[in-house]
What does this fold into?
Amino acid sequence: MQVIKSVAEIREIVKEKQKNGKMVGFVPTMGALHKGHLSLVSSSKKDNDITVVSIFVNPTQFNDKEDLKNYPRMLDNDIQLLAPLNVDFIFAPTEEEMYPEPDERDFDFGNLDKVMEGAHRPGHFRGVAQIVSKLFAAIPANRAYFGDKDFQQVAVIKAMVKQLDIPIKIIPCPIVREEDGLALSSRNLRLNSTQRANAPLIYSTLKMSREFAQNNTIEDTRKWVCSTIDANSELKTEYFEIVDENTLCPVKSWEEQGNKVGCIAVQVGEIRLIDNIRFNL
Ligand code: PAF
It folds into this structure.
Protein backbone atom coordinates (compact mmCIF):
# COMPACT_ATOMS: atom_id res chain seq x y z
CA MET A 1 0.00 0.00 0.00
CA GLN A 2 1.53 3.28 -1.12
CA VAL A 3 0.65 6.70 0.27
CA ILE A 4 0.69 9.33 -2.48
CA LYS A 5 0.50 13.05 -1.82
CA SER A 6 0.75 14.52 -5.32
CA VAL A 7 -2.14 14.93 -7.78
CA ALA A 8 0.16 14.46 -10.79
CA GLU A 9 1.57 11.23 -9.36
CA ILE A 10 -1.75 9.57 -8.47
CA ARG A 11 -3.22 10.54 -11.86
CA GLU A 12 -0.23 9.00 -13.65
CA ILE A 13 -0.52 5.78 -11.62
CA VAL A 14 -4.28 5.42 -12.26
CA LYS A 15 -3.90 6.05 -15.99
CA GLU A 16 -1.03 3.57 -16.26
CA LYS A 17 -3.08 0.87 -14.47
CA GLN A 18 -6.02 1.49 -16.80
CA LYS A 19 -3.74 1.39 -19.87
CA ASN A 20 -2.78 -2.10 -18.68
CA GLY A 21 -6.43 -3.14 -18.63
CA LYS A 22 -7.03 -2.75 -14.86
CA MET A 23 -10.33 -1.48 -13.46
CA VAL A 24 -9.84 1.15 -10.77
CA GLY A 25 -12.23 1.73 -7.86
CA PHE A 26 -12.10 4.91 -5.80
CA VAL A 27 -13.32 5.55 -2.25
CA PRO A 28 -13.23 9.28 -1.36
CA THR A 29 -13.15 9.96 2.40
CA MET A 30 -12.30 12.64 4.91
CA GLY A 31 -10.54 10.09 7.12
CA ALA A 32 -11.43 9.12 10.72
CA LEU A 33 -12.35 5.85 9.07
CA HIS A 34 -14.95 3.50 10.52
CA LYS A 35 -16.66 0.28 9.44
CA GLY A 36 -18.86 2.24 7.02
CA HIS A 37 -15.81 3.39 5.06
CA LEU A 38 -14.29 -0.09 5.27
CA SER A 39 -17.43 -1.57 3.70
CA LEU A 40 -17.04 0.87 0.76
CA VAL A 41 -13.46 -0.36 0.42
CA SER A 42 -14.64 -4.00 0.44
CA SER A 43 -17.16 -3.23 -2.32
CA SER A 44 -14.46 -1.57 -4.38
CA LYS A 45 -12.06 -4.47 -3.83
CA LYS A 46 -14.75 -6.91 -5.00
CA ASP A 47 -15.57 -4.96 -8.19
CA ASN A 48 -12.13 -3.70 -9.29
CA ASP A 49 -8.49 -4.71 -9.75
CA ILE A 50 -7.09 -1.64 -7.99
CA THR A 51 -8.55 0.38 -5.11
CA VAL A 52 -7.59 3.95 -4.26
CA VAL A 53 -8.80 5.61 -1.02
CA SER A 54 -8.46 9.37 -0.63
CA ILE A 55 -8.17 10.99 2.80
CA PHE A 56 -8.66 14.74 2.76
CA VAL A 57 -10.64 16.96 5.13
CA ASN A 58 -12.08 19.37 2.60
CA PRO A 59 -12.35 22.88 4.08
CA THR A 60 -14.69 24.24 1.39
CA GLN A 61 -17.60 21.98 2.37
CA PHE A 62 -17.70 23.11 6.02
CA ASN A 63 -20.06 26.01 6.58
CA ASP A 64 -19.21 25.89 10.29
CA LYS A 65 -15.59 26.76 11.18
CA GLU A 66 -15.81 25.01 14.56
CA ASP A 67 -16.96 21.80 12.86
CA LEU A 68 -13.94 21.98 10.51
CA LYS A 69 -11.59 22.64 13.43
CA ASN A 70 -12.99 19.75 15.47
CA TYR A 71 -13.28 17.24 12.63
CA PRO A 72 -11.18 14.21 13.71
CA ARG A 73 -7.85 13.86 11.88
CA MET A 74 -6.02 10.57 12.42
CA LEU A 75 -4.08 9.68 9.27
CA ASP A 76 -1.71 7.16 10.90
CA ASN A 77 -4.61 5.28 12.44
CA ASP A 78 -6.50 5.37 9.10
CA ILE A 79 -3.47 3.93 7.29
CA GLN A 80 -3.32 1.09 9.83
CA LEU A 81 -7.01 0.32 9.30
CA LEU A 82 -6.62 0.20 5.51
CA ALA A 83 -3.44 -1.91 5.40
CA PRO A 84 -5.10 -5.29 6.18
CA LEU A 85 -7.73 -4.64 3.48
CA ASN A 86 -4.99 -4.58 0.83
CA VAL A 87 -5.88 -1.15 -0.44
CA ASP A 88 -3.46 -0.37 -3.27
CA PHE A 89 -3.07 3.40 -2.90
CA ILE A 90 -3.97 6.04 -0.35
CA PHE A 91 -4.16 9.56 -1.74
CA ALA A 92 -3.59 12.00 1.15
CA PRO A 93 -2.90 15.44 -0.33
CA THR A 94 -2.30 18.71 1.54
CA GLU A 95 -4.72 21.62 1.25
CA GLU A 96 -2.21 23.46 -1.01
CA GLU A 97 -2.07 20.44 -3.32
CA MET A 98 -5.86 20.33 -3.76
CA TYR A 99 -6.38 24.10 -3.78
CA PRO A 100 -3.24 25.74 -5.23
CA GLU A 101 -5.61 28.65 -5.77
CA PRO A 102 -9.09 29.28 -4.41
CA ASP A 103 -11.83 27.37 -6.25
CA GLU A 104 -14.39 29.96 -7.37
CA ARG A 105 -16.62 27.52 -9.24
CA ASP A 106 -20.36 27.52 -8.64
CA PHE A 107 -22.70 24.68 -9.53
CA ASP A 108 -26.42 24.46 -10.09
CA PHE A 109 -28.08 21.15 -9.34
CA GLY A 110 -31.62 22.54 -9.30
CA ASN A 111 -33.59 21.34 -6.30
CA LEU A 112 -31.04 18.70 -5.32
CA ASP A 113 -28.60 21.01 -3.54
CA LYS A 114 -31.18 23.50 -2.23
CA VAL A 115 -33.28 21.38 0.14
CA MET A 116 -32.50 19.68 3.48
CA GLU A 117 -28.69 19.73 3.96
CA GLY A 118 -28.44 22.38 1.24
CA ALA A 119 -30.90 24.65 3.08
CA HIS A 120 -29.32 24.12 6.51
CA ARG A 121 -25.65 24.11 5.48
CA PRO A 122 -25.25 26.93 2.95
CA GLY A 123 -22.37 26.29 0.54
CA HIS A 124 -21.92 22.69 1.70
CA PHE A 125 -22.75 21.04 -1.63
CA ARG A 126 -20.79 23.65 -3.59
CA GLY A 127 -17.76 22.56 -1.55
CA VAL A 128 -18.56 18.87 -2.04
CA ALA A 129 -18.89 19.35 -5.82
CA GLN A 130 -15.64 21.35 -5.90
CA ILE A 131 -13.58 18.71 -4.10
CA VAL A 132 -15.19 15.63 -5.65
CA SER A 133 -14.74 17.02 -9.18
CA LYS A 134 -11.07 17.76 -8.35
CA LEU A 135 -10.61 14.30 -6.85
CA PHE A 136 -12.23 12.71 -9.91
CA ALA A 137 -9.78 14.64 -12.13
CA ALA A 138 -6.86 13.41 -10.00
CA ILE A 139 -8.20 9.84 -9.81
CA PRO A 140 -10.07 9.15 -13.07
CA ALA A 141 -11.34 5.82 -11.71
CA ASN A 142 -13.87 3.50 -13.34
CA ARG A 143 -16.12 3.40 -10.27
CA ALA A 144 -16.49 5.56 -7.14
CA TYR A 145 -18.14 4.41 -3.91
CA PHE A 146 -20.28 6.53 -1.57
CA GLY A 147 -22.30 5.65 1.53
CA ASP A 148 -26.07 5.99 1.42
CA LYS A 149 -26.06 7.71 4.83
CA ASP A 150 -25.23 10.85 2.87
CA PHE A 151 -28.22 10.20 0.63
CA GLN A 152 -28.46 13.77 -0.67
CA GLN A 153 -24.70 13.88 -1.32
CA VAL A 154 -25.02 10.81 -3.55
CA ALA A 155 -27.85 12.49 -5.51
CA VAL A 156 -25.77 15.67 -5.95
CA ILE A 157 -22.66 13.73 -7.04
CA LYS A 158 -24.67 11.69 -9.55
CA ALA A 159 -26.03 14.96 -10.98
CA MET A 160 -22.51 16.44 -11.05
CA VAL A 161 -20.94 13.59 -13.04
CA LYS A 162 -23.82 13.83 -15.52
CA GLN A 163 -23.49 17.60 -15.83
CA LEU A 164 -19.68 17.58 -16.18
CA ASP A 165 -19.71 14.44 -18.33
CA ILE A 166 -17.32 12.58 -16.01
CA PRO A 167 -17.14 8.90 -17.04
CA ILE A 168 -17.02 7.47 -13.50
CA LYS A 169 -19.81 5.15 -12.35
CA ILE A 170 -21.19 6.19 -8.96
CA ILE A 171 -21.91 3.21 -6.70
CA PRO A 172 -24.09 3.96 -3.64
CA CYS A 173 -23.53 1.51 -0.76
CA PRO A 174 -25.83 0.60 2.17
CA ILE A 175 -25.64 2.42 5.51
CA VAL A 176 -23.59 0.55 8.11
CA ARG A 177 -24.96 0.76 11.67
CA GLU A 178 -23.79 0.09 15.21
CA GLU A 179 -25.57 -2.81 16.92
CA ASP A 180 -27.98 -0.35 18.55
CA GLY A 181 -28.88 1.11 15.15
CA LEU A 182 -26.88 4.35 15.19
CA ALA A 183 -25.59 5.03 11.67
CA LEU A 184 -21.79 5.00 11.62
CA SER A 185 -20.29 8.46 11.25
CA SER A 186 -16.90 9.98 12.02
CA ARG A 187 -18.82 12.55 14.09
CA ASN A 188 -20.01 9.79 16.50
CA LEU A 189 -16.49 9.94 17.99
CA ARG A 190 -17.34 13.37 19.37
CA LEU A 191 -20.49 12.30 21.26
CA ASN A 192 -20.13 12.15 25.03
CA SER A 193 -21.41 9.02 26.79
CA THR A 194 -24.88 10.47 27.52
CA GLN A 195 -25.28 11.70 23.96
CA ARG A 196 -24.04 8.38 22.59
CA ALA A 197 -26.58 6.53 24.77
CA ASN A 198 -29.47 8.65 23.44
CA ALA A 199 -28.46 8.92 19.76
CA PRO A 200 -29.88 5.47 18.75
CA LEU A 201 -33.35 6.98 19.26
CA ILE A 202 -32.89 8.57 15.84
CA TYR A 203 -32.90 5.29 13.94
CA SER A 204 -35.38 3.51 16.23
CA THR A 205 -37.83 6.38 15.60
CA LEU A 206 -37.23 6.21 11.84
CA LYS A 207 -37.94 2.47 11.93
CA MET A 208 -41.13 2.96 13.97
CA SER A 209 -42.25 5.73 11.60
CA ARG A 210 -42.70 3.12 8.88
CA GLU A 211 -45.37 1.45 11.08
CA PHE A 212 -46.90 4.81 12.01
CA ALA A 213 -47.08 5.72 8.32
CA GLN A 214 -49.37 2.75 7.58
CA ASN A 215 -52.32 4.63 9.12
CA ASN A 216 -51.24 8.26 8.96
CA THR A 217 -50.60 11.00 6.44
CA ILE A 218 -47.13 12.13 5.42
CA GLU A 219 -47.49 15.37 7.36
CA ASP A 220 -48.61 13.53 10.53
CA THR A 221 -45.74 11.05 10.15
CA ARG A 222 -43.31 13.94 9.75
CA LYS A 223 -44.61 15.66 12.87
CA TRP A 224 -44.63 12.38 14.84
CA VAL A 225 -40.96 11.72 14.07
CA CYS A 226 -39.93 15.26 15.08
CA SER A 227 -41.94 15.24 18.32
CA THR A 228 -40.79 11.73 19.31
CA ILE A 229 -37.13 12.67 18.89
CA ASP A 230 -37.51 16.12 20.45
CA ALA A 231 -39.13 14.57 23.55
CA ASN A 232 -35.60 13.40 24.39
CA SER A 233 -33.79 16.35 25.98
CA GLU A 234 -30.42 15.38 24.40
CA LEU A 235 -31.76 15.54 20.83
CA LYS A 236 -33.20 18.31 18.64
CA THR A 237 -34.51 17.62 15.15
CA GLU A 238 -33.31 20.12 12.56
CA TYR A 239 -35.45 18.67 9.80
CA PHE A 240 -37.24 15.48 8.85
CA GLU A 241 -38.49 15.39 5.26
CA ILE A 242 -40.07 12.59 3.25
CA VAL A 243 -38.84 13.13 -0.30
CA ASP A 244 -38.89 11.52 -3.71
CA GLU A 245 -35.68 9.48 -4.07
CA ASN A 246 -34.80 11.03 -7.45
CA THR A 247 -35.94 14.67 -7.26
CA LEU A 248 -35.60 15.09 -3.45
CA CYS A 249 -38.84 17.11 -3.63
CA PRO A 250 -41.03 16.69 -0.55
CA VAL A 251 -43.80 14.15 -1.14
CA LYS A 252 -47.29 15.32 -0.20
CA SER A 253 -49.17 12.03 -0.13
CA TRP A 254 -48.32 8.33 0.12
CA GLU A 255 -50.25 7.79 -3.11
CA GLU A 256 -47.72 9.77 -5.17
CA GLN A 257 -45.65 7.72 -7.62
CA GLY A 258 -41.99 6.97 -6.94
CA ASN A 259 -39.84 5.71 -4.09
CA LYS A 260 -39.86 7.75 -0.93
CA VAL A 261 -37.04 8.38 1.53
CA GLY A 262 -37.28 9.96 4.97
CA CYS A 263 -34.19 12.12 5.59
CA ILE A 264 -33.34 13.52 9.01
CA ALA A 265 -30.79 15.81 10.65
CA VAL A 266 -30.58 15.91 14.42
CA GLN A 267 -28.53 18.13 16.66
CA VAL A 268 -27.04 16.17 19.58
CA GLY A 269 -25.42 18.87 21.69
CA GLU A 270 -22.78 20.40 19.40
CA ILE A 271 -22.82 17.41 17.04
CA ARG A 272 -25.06 17.19 14.02
CA LEU A 273 -26.05 13.69 12.86
CA ILE A 274 -27.92 12.67 9.70
CA ASP A 275 -29.70 9.45 8.79
CA ASN A 276 -32.39 8.23 6.40
CA ILE A 277 -34.88 5.44 5.82
CA ARG A 278 -36.81 4.17 2.83
CA PHE A 279 -40.62 4.09 2.87
CA ASN A 280 -41.90 1.33 0.61
CA LEU A 281 -45.59 1.49 1.46
O1 PAF B 1 -18.63 12.02 2.37
C1 PAF B 1 -17.50 12.53 2.60
O2 PAF B 1 -16.72 12.04 3.42
C2 PAF B 1 -17.10 13.79 1.88
O3 PAF B 1 -18.18 14.63 1.69
C3 PAF B 1 -16.36 13.53 0.56
C4 PAF B 1 -17.26 12.83 -0.45
C5 PAF B 1 -15.13 12.67 0.82
C6 PAF B 1 -15.90 14.85 -0.06
O4 PAF B 1 -15.05 15.55 0.79
